[in-house]
């Protein structure tokens, strides 16, 4: 592809930058002081971040920048992915609240556009854009993560309602989400991929019990969600009954693509840290910095590749697995390097640590992209089977009814 802007791209970029200049402050790429604004996690601070994030999301929605790739009738600009991605790329150069709505905007929105009824689109999409409704993804269970299709949360039809019972886990944002897309088993008599249905569950429904999981860094990011005879109207079904696996595939493809989309930090900040620690002349440090820089660049080009495929109307496919692996490797390389650069200070965490523990949090958060949205090993399986054409693992679970599968 040609990396210079076409006249069309130049016009979109100019409009995006003009809007961002008028609404936010540009950041200096190697500004280490910005890292000092980092704050250790506590509930009050998290609530402030959510309010700031919502306000920023609303402003973007009013200007048509919240989801530029969505059709105009649902609040987007109808831009092809290459043009739509320009805004997000430019936004990273500005000091704006962290994006806390990637599940809604990046994953649920495109899934509702593809699978929802017209009524569901009109109900949900505008509220996703403005972050009026925050969404979560009720997929993983204690016994079903990588093997997601082995899930056992049940939804049983009772008149016009589903009655849902089961347990989900690692549900990001469930503690402040308004709605969740739930995968439930609705037919255990057929093979496991075929008996699943996707259902939109209001998180304030009686019988939904959200229990936050506190992480090693003090943050609460995800939750256990217990569902005890939760009644949900049947018209909350997303996509046809029994085709929840296809709905999930759509959502997971968008999840992988959105995990590849943004970064928590840039290369320039790591280089500035090395400089401030007087380490840029060390040949080993230089080599590690060059490695990190290369990974940032590779990721940028992979991003173009994913968006080019999407511009041709292709669903993000194996490219997004390659991209997700590249993100994991970047976070691993970068996380390890920022700790090494700080020497003994790299062991300190909390508000009184150097840079208020921002780099230590970066180190500890490297495991999130390496596991969430499908682990590195699972991405390698996808690439092995679908890109390299290697033989599939022998399986016995594609023909037997779910109820007859041996399970722990
Ligand atoms: C930050 C974060 C956010 C998350 N948010 C959500 C969310 O919002 N909603 C949600 O539903 N889930 C969420 N998850 C859960 C996530 O999708 C699962 O953790 C992930 O799919 C792995 O499943 P598991 O934890 O059950 O691990 P397992 O599937 O039990 O895997 C354990 C280990 O075995 C390996 N393994 C498993 N199967 C294979 C195989 N076939 N070949 C090779 N190796 C294999 C894995 O790679 C891993 O190393 C989140 C996870 C994280 C880390």
Which fold name fills CATH's third level, the topology of the largest domain? Butyryl-CoA Dehydrogenase, subunit A, domain 3
Structural class: alpha+beta
Low-confidence parts, pLDDT < 50 over ≥5 residues?
A: none
Say which molecules are bound, naming each kind only once.
flavin-adenine dinucleotide
Overall CATH architecture of the largest domain: Up-down Bundle
Main sheet overview:
4 strands, mixed
Task: Work out the helicity level.
Answer: 40-55%
Into which percentage range does the β-strand content fall?
15-25%
Q: Topology, please?
A:
Layout: H1 7-23, E1 25-26, H2 43-63, H3 81-91, E2 94-95, H4 102-115, H5 118-129, E3 135-138, E4 154-158, E5 161-172, E6 179-185, E7 196-202, E8 208-214, E9 220-233, E10 237-238, H6 244-259, H7 267-276, H8 283-311, H9 318-342, H10 358-364, H11 367-371, H12 376-387
Parallel strand pairs: 3-6
Antiparallel strand pairs: 1-2, 4-5, 5-9, 6-7, 7-10, 8-9
Helix pairs in contact: 1-3, 4-5, 4-6, 6-9, 7-8, 8-9, 9-10, 9-12
This protein binds flavin-adenine dinucleotide (FAD).
Textual characterization of the structure:
The chain is of the alpha+beta class and 408 residues long. It is 44% helix and 15% strand. It folds into three domains: 7-100, no CATH class; 135-243, Beta Barrel (Butyryl-CoA Dehydrogenase, subunit A, domain 2), CATH 2.40.110; 260-387, Butyryl-CoA Dehydrogenase, subunit A, domain 3 (Up-down Bundle), CATH 1.20.140. Strands 3-6-7-10 form a four-stranded mixed sheet. A four-stranded antiparallel sheet has the order 4-5-9-8, with no helix packed on it. The radius of gyration is 22 Å and the shape is globular. It starts with 6 loop residues before the first helix and ends in a 21-residue tail after the last helix. The mean pLDDT is 91. Bound molecules: flavin-adenine dinucleotide.
């Amino acid at each position: 592809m040609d990396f210079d802007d076409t006249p069309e791209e130049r016009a979109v970029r100019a409009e995006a930058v003009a809007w961002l200049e008028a609404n936010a402050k540009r950041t200096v790429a190697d500004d280490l002081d910005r890292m000092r604004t980092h704050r250790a996690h506590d509930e009050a601070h998290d609530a402030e971040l959510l309010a700031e994030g919502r306000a920023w999301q609303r402003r973007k929605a009013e200007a048509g920048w919240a989801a530029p790739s969505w059709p105009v009738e649902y609040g987007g600009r109808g831009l092809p992915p290459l043009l739509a991605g320009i805004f997000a790329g430019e936004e990273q150069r500005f000091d704006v609240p962290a994006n806390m709505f990637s599940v809604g905007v990046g994953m649920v929105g495109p899934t509702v556009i593809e699978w929802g009824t017209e009524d569901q689109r009109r109900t949900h999409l505008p509220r996703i854009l403005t972050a009026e409704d925050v969404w979560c993804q009720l997929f993983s269970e204690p016994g079903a993560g990588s093997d997601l299709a082995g899930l056992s949360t049940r939804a049983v039809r009772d008149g016009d309602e589903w009655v849902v019972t089961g347990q989900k886990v690692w549900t990001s944002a469930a503690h402040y989400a308004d709605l969740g897309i739930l995968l439930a088993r609705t037919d255990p008599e057929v093979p496991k991929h075929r008996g699943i249905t996707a259902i939109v569950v209001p998180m304030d429904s009686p019988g939904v019990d959200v229990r936050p999981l506190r992480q090693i860094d003090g943050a609460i990011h995800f939750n256990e969600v217990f569902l005890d005879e939760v009644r949900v109207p049947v018209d909350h079904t997303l996509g046809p009954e029994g085709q929840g696996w296809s709905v999930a595939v759509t959502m997971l493809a968008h999840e992988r693509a959105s995990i590849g989309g943004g970064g928590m930090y840039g290369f320039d900040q790591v280089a500035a840290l090395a400089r401030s620690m007087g380490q840029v002349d060390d040949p080993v440090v230089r080599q590690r910095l060059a490695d990190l820089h290369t990974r940032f660049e590779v990721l940028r080009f992979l991003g173009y590749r994913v968006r080019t495929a999407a511009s041709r109307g292709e669903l993000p496919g194996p490219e997004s697995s390659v991209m997700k692996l590249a993100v994991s490797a970047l976070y691993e390389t970068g996380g390890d390097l920022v700790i090494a650069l700080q020497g003994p200070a790299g062991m300190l965490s909390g508000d009184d640590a150097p840079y208020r523990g921002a780099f230590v949090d970066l180190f500890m958060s490297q495991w999130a992209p390496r596991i969430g949205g499908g682990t590195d090993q699972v991405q390698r399986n996808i690439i092995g089977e679908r890109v390299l054409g290697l033989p599939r693992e022998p399986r016995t679970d594609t023909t037997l009814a779910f109820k007859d599968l041996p399970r722990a």
